[in-house]
Amino acid sequence: MTNPLTTTSIILHLEIQKWAGEVSDKKALKAVADTFNSDTHNDKYKKSLFVTDPLSMIDRCAGRLRNHFYASTYSWLDNGKGRLIPSMDFQGFAIEHSKLKQDFYNEVEQFLAEYEEHKEEAKRKKGDLFNEGEYPTVEQLRTRFEINLTTLPFPNIDDFRITAPEEVIDELQKSMEDSVTRVQHVVSTDIRLRLEERLQMLVKTLKFGKRFSKSLLTELEKLVASAYNLQDTIEKRLYEDLLYVEKNILKYTPETLRNSQNAQDEVIEICNSILSH
């Protein structure tokens, strides 16, 4: 069995490391126990080291990185690390990822430049809850913010060359073939769910006169592009549906769909026909 994923797909794994600016405070927990005469043996008290929220911009950048990663990739296992991206999509993904990554590190440097000011404000306002020893140095902090993107080619059955009895190798071959079939199903399911979600949004927007956004079509365009890149992998019916979307929905411009009732009615009918099977 030939595995088409080996030539069409890459596995990506994204790790985002960031400092939360919080610590467990036993002193505060003891104060709670004393005040309420309570057993706090299994309780935890998380204390923010700052008065304001100086890490919020870093958190937002991390969120954008994560959202872009998930929007650009597909599930290939029910559970586990790594997500699949069509090889032809990787360059565009990598360019945007690099920009978002730089935004993240720019915000980290901004925070580090203002770190001592934030610490001094906490010292003034936190009273007895302030503990100098809980604050890392700037040098220590810099190592606690990191973005790592691991890129691997999709494994090929032929990559597993081992010395073993023939029956063991045959069993390994069958296991790998079964895995490929399962991966193809998971990828198809992910793309199908995204397609249905976008078609439902399109119907809702057109049917109830909501503000029409160009992104409704650009998201469908991305799915069609993925279909072309993964046409030997995804299920045949899904591939045909995406080509049908390209031919009969993406022929319209956003302006046409905003102003033409006939075009709106046709697109709604097409969407519902795909959603119904």
Question: Explain this structure to me?
Answer:
It is built from 10 helices and 5 strands, in the order H-E-E-H-E-H-E-H-H-E-H-H-H-H-H. It starts with a helix and ends with a helix. It has helices at residues 5-8, 26-36, 56-72, 90-125, 138-142, 166-207, 215-229, 236-248, 254-259, 261-275, and strands at residues 9-17, 22-24, 46-48, 83-86, 146-153. The chain folds into 2 domains: 5-153, no CATH class; 162-275. It is mainly alpha-helical. It is extended, with a radius of gyration of 26 Å. The model has no long low-confidence stretch (mean pLDDT 86). A 3-stranded antiparallel beta sheet has the order 4-1-5. Strands 2-3 form a two-stranded antiparallel sheet.
Describe the structure concisely for a colleague.
With 277 residues, the chain is mainly alpha-helical.
Please outline the major beta sheet.
3 strands, antiparallel
Helix/strand order, N-terminal first:
HEEHEHEHHEHHHHH
Estimate the global geometry from the Cα principal axes. extended
Structural class: mainly alpha
- What's the count of strands? 5
Helix share, percent: 55-70%
> What count of domains describes the coordinates?
2
- Compute the separation of the termini in Å: 30 Å
Residues in β-strands, percent: 5-15%
Q: Radius of gyration in whole Å, from Cα?
A: 26 Å
For the largest beta sheet, what order do the strands appear in spatially?
4-1-5
Discrete helix count: 10
Summed over residues and divided by their number, the pLDDT gives a mean of: 86
Low-pLDDT stretches are none
